[in-house]
């Protein structure tokens, strides 16, 4: 009896240590999402958006200075350490690998949708963006989550607390490879947070429509259009990292570029 108890204790201890090691590895290497073969862009670009410590901006200041007028990046506003651990590659595949996810084409008017098991998305679709592919031929996992299936994950996400009056937040969760992103479009206000990876954002106010082709990827806009923009057509831009959330006001044009394989979540206020 005693030997059995010792054996059981040993098995539990080994499992706990293995889980701890896996967790440490996940934290250190970007949740297991970055692979050595990934070409990760080092070009984070400039940052001409206000970046503030969340604790230094009250809700009233947020409402007066940003809510209806310009984007802002807030650091340390929430602590999503637990959610980050749940979003490691091994954790998500274990829980959701068999669930079907809906992919949308990465163009401005994204009409085509494709449903695949999450495991297949990770194995077959999650890769660096090829420079010459059209947005309409690039499938992106973002924007169409099955909330019943993913609820047990989303309930651990701590969303940004500064909500606009008469709105509530709706989540949109995604994972995408380096160089991917969504080209310019606009909609209501919201937040974007990266859980793993880095995401470069480009924004223009509602009355300054950027020059872009709705069927080209953000990557092609960044390499072919962005370098030649006159200074008065330069976007607001910044790269966000885990622990930072970007707020964009209503109807602001925006485009994104994932610099790494990224896990991210938007909170749309509507
Ligand atoms: O995170 C992304 O790549 C897309 C985000 C976006 O376009 C949005 O939140 O509206």
The CATH topology comes to Jelly Rolls
N-end to C-end Cα span: 61 Å
Radius of gyration: 20 Å
Strand neighbour order, sheet with most strands: 1-2-10-7-12-6
Mean pLDDT: 90
By CATH's scheme, which homologous superfamily applies? Answer: Cupin
Strand content: 15-25%
Indicate the overall shape.
globular
Category by helix and strand content: alpha+beta
- The share of residues in helices is 25-40%
* Number of domain units: 1
**Low-confidence region ranges:** 23-27
The total count of strands amounts to 12
Instruction: Profile the largest sheet.
Output: 6 strands, mixed
Bound molecules: 2-oxoglutaric acid
Structure write-up:
The protein is α+β, with helices and mostly antiparallel strands. It has a single domain (47-269), classed as Cupin (Jelly Rolls, Sandwich). It contains seven helices and twelve strands. The protein has helices at 2-28, 59-67, 81-86, 89-96, 118-125, 147-154, 218-224, and strands at 50-53, 72-75, 100-105, 113-117, 139-140, 169-176, 190-196, 199-204, 236-240, 244-248, 253-258, 262-269. The strands form three sheets. It has a six-stranded mixed β-sheet with strand order 1-2-10-7-12-6, with no helix packed on it. Strands 4-3-5 form a three-stranded antiparallel β-sheet. The protein has a three-stranded antiparallel β-sheet with strand order 9-8-11, with no helix packed on it. α2 (59-67) links the parallel β1 (50-53) and β2. The longest helix has 27 residues, at 2-28. The radius of gyration is 20 Å and the shape is globular. 2-oxoglutaric acid is lined by residues 142, 174, 181-182, 190, 192, 199, 254, 256, 264, 266.
């Amino acid at each position: 009896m005693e030997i059995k108890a010792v054996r059981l204790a040993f098995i539990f201890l080994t499992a706990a240590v293995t889980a701890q090691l896996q967790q440490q590895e996940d934290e250190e290497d970007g949740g297991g999402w970055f692979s050595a073969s990934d070409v990760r862009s080092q070009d984070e670009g400039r940052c001409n958006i206000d970046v503030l410590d969340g604790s230094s901006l009250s809700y009233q200041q947020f409402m007066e200075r940003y809510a209806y007028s310009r984007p802002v990046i807030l650091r340390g506003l929430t602590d999503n350490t637990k959610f980050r651990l749940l979003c490691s590659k091994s954790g998500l595949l274990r829980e959701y690998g068999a669930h079907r996810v809906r992919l949308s084409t990465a163009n401005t008017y994204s009409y085509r949708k494709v449903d695949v098991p999450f495991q297949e998305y990770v194995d077959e679709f999650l890769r660096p963006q090829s420079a010459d592919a059209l947005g309409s031929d690039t499938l992106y996992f973002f924007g169409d989550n099955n909330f019943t299936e993913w609820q047990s994950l989303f309930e651990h996400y701590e969303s940004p607390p500064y909500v606009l009056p008469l709105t509530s937040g709706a989540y949109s969760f995604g994972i995408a490879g380096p160089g991917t992103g969504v080209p310019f479009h606009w909609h209501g206000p919201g937040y974007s947070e990266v859980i793993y990876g880095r995401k470069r954002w480009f924004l223009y106010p509602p009355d300054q429509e950027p020059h872009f082709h709705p069927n080209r990827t953000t990557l092609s806009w960044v390499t072919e259009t962005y370098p030649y923009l006159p200074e008065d057509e330069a976007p607001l831009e910044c790269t966000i990292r885990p622990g930072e959330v970007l707020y964009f006001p209503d109807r602001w044009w925006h485009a994104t570029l994932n610099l790494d394989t990224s896990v991210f979540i938007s909170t749309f206020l509507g």
